[in-house]
Amino acid sequence: xxxxxxxxxxxxxxxxxxxxxxxxxxxxxxxxxxxxxxxxxxxxxxxxxxxxxxxxxxxxxxxxxxxxxxxxxxxxxxxxxxxxxxxxxxxxxxxxxxxxxxxxxxxxxxxxxxxxxxxxxxxxxxxxxxxxxxxxxxxxxxxxxxxxxxxxxxxxxxxxxxxxxxxxxxxxxxxxxxxxxxxxxxxxxxxxxxxxxxxxxxxxxxxxxxxxxxxxxxxxxxxxxxxxxxxxxxxxxxxxxxxxxxxxxxxxxxxxxxxxxxxxxxxxxxxxxxxxxxxxxxxxxxxxxxxxxxxxxxxxxxxxxxxxxxxxxxxxxxxxxxxxxxxxxxxxxxxxxxxxxxxxxxxxxxxxxxxxxxx
Length: 359
What we know:
The protein has helices at residues 10-75, 78-81, 85-98, 130-136, 180-188, 266-269, 271-317, 333-358; strands at residues 102-108, 114-117, 142-147, 154-163, 169-178, 196-200, 206-209, 238-242, 245-253, 259-265. By secondary structure, the chain is of the alpha+beta class. A five-stranded antiparallel beta sheet has the order 2-1-5-4-3. The chain starts with 9 loop residues before the first helix and ends with a helix. This is histidine kinase. Its EC number is 2.7.13.3. Pfam families: dCache_1, HAMP. The chain crosses the membrane at residues 280-299.
């Protein structure tokens, strides 16, 4: 059996016309508005991350600079330059009492041996520590994060060179500090429900972390952390994949070589934009469904009288004359068609009558 080819009827044409008239402008407005909304959302998110990082960085840098200044001032004292334990110990104890976060202040001679300490514990050797080696080589200040033997927790040690009157390095002055104050600032930093901050040292080891799932009783190496491998993240906030989560983050380099990372889950950061786009898509779908419903209703109103007139025309072609023709009283084109068919029926009847008389 031969299948009739598909043909567009009034319903199809009406649906396509109404969809084009209603959806094309709506989709155009949605696309333009969505692009602008995404641009605005990205700018706001970026600004928030940058401002958060700037605020934390300012506080940390000021804290660090205050410690370095105190060490440099102490290193210039004649008693400190003497490299004699009896003369250095009172200064070290005074520093330890002044800076409550410092649990140990000590000096090291160029060979790496401990000369004096602010506590009463035995002298030890620090020659292998990178902060000592950095200061001994002439760095204005050197830092290292280690697990402290005194507290059993990560601690920051800052070291500066002790120079004699001729400018030669005669030893190193170091301060080992608890990270409680920095950790509190980092942990108290919340960006929405899923955002946090992480502070890393120059070797990408954790100084403090606001991640709820990250341990704080060990020095963790985060060199392989996804955010640190993203190009351009230090210039502007960037979107990247971190495991199964999509994140938006920003990394800021601090003067002391540390890295401050702030990041937030993409889904939360762009939640308001996603709700806006979901609402817009729902509106488009609803509009399309409404258009199809309206088109179906209108098509039915148009095609029903036309189909009735088609039936009348087919009856006329067979010599069957209807008692009444629907739609004659209508004032539109369908009414004109009905009246034309009525006149055609009358003409056919008159022609048949004349033929019958002649016969």
